[in-house]
Write a structure and sequence with these properties.
Layout (H helix, E strand, L loop, with lengths): L26 H5 L8 E5 L25 H13 L4 E5 L9 H10 L3 E6 L6 H8 L4 E6 L5 H8 L3 H14 L6 E6 L7 H10 L3 E6 L6 H8 L3 H14 L3 E2 L26 E4 L4 E3 L10 E4 H4 L1 H7 L1 H6 L13 H4 L4 H6 L62 E3 L6 E3 L2 E3 L1
Parallel strand pairs: 1-2, 1-8, 2-3, 3-4, 4-5, 5-6, 6-7
Antiparallel strand pairs: 8-9, 9-10, 11-12, 12-13
The structure holds iron/sulfur cluster (2 copies).
């Protein structure tokens, strides 16, 4: 993919007036105007999941009956390939519960589009681990939110630690190197960072630390789980000391307010270099921004390239960062922090991050810069199980598989889907 700045407000789109803002020069100024294709395209293949993590950013559990089918998925991959997307981050829900998941993987790899998929590990047995290792442009990321079963299972559910560790063992035994262990940092696991590093070392894996965002079910669990101010400092110091083999993406640039910037993208990439395609083909500015406010269009109706290029939602995000934070000495590296975190905590998008680390901390966590706190938006998508609906207990209930002759079993689920029908 060519890293070319896209100066692309469409003729039909009102062009927002940029707030005068200090420029930093270089890559960040280029990236904030958007690229011809996203660097980080997250694609959630299903909202179905056999777990029910309390902080799930997509409130997954039940599949959506409008989920893109196999033909739509492969056509979308062809479009990604044609526009130069070279890498997909695939997630869900639990993507491997789709019986066509492995075919979709192979289709992407055949088209020259690399893939990393996120999984809770429940379907990575020894055979599947060898299948994965045999594909050089396929990467896998196993979620683990505690270095002990007690801490992990409190968030991800009973038995999920053992499941993830078993998947890591299978992958290591198959010869996988640099599998990613994805950790959402919470106030319960910040004290386990060294232990996570040891687990990664044990399985020849890499640690990937992610910020907890208040989106999806995380909107509800945010106040109980997001790190305390002193833990933000502990995390920052740990990343400076031991983070050279740790991936963080754009998770922690708001911590730059402590002083020395951390490696990684110091910019909110929403709609600029990052976006999300959800299981029904809706395109959002970022995986943590699944809300009408950030909705840019639907790939079935419009195709992905046109949405990425011309959507008014994305055009509005591709202006210079501005607002009250421009007065902050850390603005050139923090730039006001995460838009999704601000939006879902009711803070103005041109104000400071809810976990701003500068100065005294108000009850919202936003300190040095005065902010007007608005009503907290309620996440408008919820696929959680537990309702009285027919599909509440089984992520594939009601779904007709595309072909007969396969069987999907779920650990802990009292249902099996087989040969074109769902049964309980
Ligand atoms: S909204 Fe937050 S999570 Fe999304 S791209 Fe911006 S900084 Fe990253
Ligand atoms: S005031 Fe704004 S730019 Fe400064 S550290 Fe806080 S969020 Fe970042």
């Amino acid at each position: 993919m060519t890293l070319t700045a896209g100066h692309r407000p469409s003729s039909s789109t009102p062009t927002p007036t940029p707030t005068p803002t200090p420029t930093t020069g270089g890559l960040v100024d280029v990236l904030q105007e958007g690229l011809v294709a996203p660097i980080c395209l997250t694609w959630e293949l299903t909202y179905g999941c056999n777990l029910a993590c309390v902080h799930c950013l997509s409130s997954s559990g039940r599949r959506d009956p409008r989920e893109l089918d196999t033909a739509q998925c492969t056509a979308l991959i062809d479009e990604f390939a044609a526009m130069g997307v070279f890498y997909l981050n695939v997630g869900g829900g639990e993507p491997t519960i789709r019986p066509d998941f492995w075919r979709i993987v192979d289709h992407a790899l055949d088209r020259g589009v690399g893939m990393k998929f996120s999984t809770n590990g429940s379907r990575i047995d020894a055979t599947r681990a060898r299948w994965i290792v045999a594909r050089p442009y396929l990467d896998v990321q196993v979620s683990l939110d505690g270095a002990t079963a007690a801490v992990n299972d409190a968030v991800r559910g009973q038995g999920s630690y053992a499941t993830a560790i078993r998947a890591l063992e299978n992958l290591a035994e198959a010869g996988a190197r640099d599998v990613k262990i994805s950790v959402v940092c919470t106030r319960d696991n910040i004290g386990q960072l060294d232990d996570f590093a040891l687990i990664a070392q044990r399985y020849s894996a890499m640690l990937r630390l992610t910020r907890l965002r208040p989106s999806g079910r995380g909107a509800t669990s945010w106040h109980a789980l997001h790190p305390r101010p002193e833990q933000q400092r502990e995390l920052y110091d740990w990343l400076l000391r031991a983070g050279d083999r740790v991936l963080t993406g754009d998770s922690f640039f708001h911590l730059s307010g402590f002083g020395q910037p951390l490696p990684g993208l110091n910019l909110c990439g929403a709609g600029r270099v990052v976006c999300l395609v959800d299981p029904v083909g809706d395109v959002y500015a970022c995986p943590f921004a699944i809300h009408e406010h950030f909705l840019a269009g639907n790939v079935v109706a419009a195709g992905f390239a046109a949405i990425w290029r011309d959507s008014p939602t994305f055009t509005a995000l591709r202006v210079a960062d501005g607002g009250t934070c421009t007065a902050c000495p850390s603005f050139s590296t923090c730039r006001g922090g995460c838009r999704a975190a601000k939006f879902f905590t009711g803070l103005p998008e041109d104000g400071p991050d809810p976990e701003c680390v500068r100065a005294d901390r108000t009850p919202t966590g936003a300190g040095a810069v005065p902010v007007a706190i608005g009503p907290r938006p309620v996440p408008d998508k919820d696929h959680s199980r537990g309702s009285a609906r027919a599909c509440a207990d089984h992520p594939l209930a009601g779904w007709t598989p595309p072909t007969a002759g396969f069987e999907v079993a779920f650990p802990g689920a009292a249902a099996t889907t087989t040969g074109g029908a769902s049964r309980r």
